[in-house]
């Protein structure tokens, strides 16, 4: 069972990361899926997405939940029936789940040079402290994207823009954490964020 990492963020919040090494069949076999979940996974054209979807259900089991405990609202945000807050992510060969008593968000991204091509679409203030000539430019861009994606998942409000409404306070990779803000509809919200790198991937997560 390749549970890759467990992070105890605080007494109320835990992150679990799965390294997806099993075949689709091996992941599916021990699970009992709701009909809508089974239809969803069978309808996926990519086996990579299927394995990501199923690995998230294995992470739920690590937390003591089943697929039946999970549902999604009209904005596509996941919820647990017991009222705990959950956020889900998967990217290529890794998936992650964060569960907390508070609203949370998580994202895993593969570190790829092509993120620099779209940087202007999600970075504004952050260009004050990162530059394309920096040795760690791609890695820090990936952290910024991951934090903003996590904020978007947490807030789950259609119409929010990474570049306009989300701001990440200056950080260095060795810090492993920073502060982020949402500025939306004349209100400001402050969040604690953390990030880590492993095997060419970046995981970021946010909590109030």
TrEMBL record:
<dbReference type="Pfam" id="PF01648">
    <property type="entry name" value="ACPS"/>
</dbReference>
<dbReference type="InterPro" id="IPR037143">
    <property type="entry name" value="4-PPantetheinyl_Trfase_dom_sf"/>
</dbReference>
<feature type="domain" description="4'-phosphopantetheinyl transferase">
    <location>
        <begin position="104"/>
        <end position="184"/>
    </location>
</feature>
<protein>
    <submittedName>
        <fullName>4'-phosphopantetheinyl transferase family protein</fullName>
    </submittedName>
</protein>
<dbReference type="GO" id="GO:0016740">
    <property type="term" value="F:transferase activity"/>
</dbReference>
<dbReference type="InterPro" id="IPR008278">
    <property type="entry name" value="4-PPantetheinyl_Trfase_dom"/>
</dbReference>
<keyword id="KW-0808">Transferase</keyword>
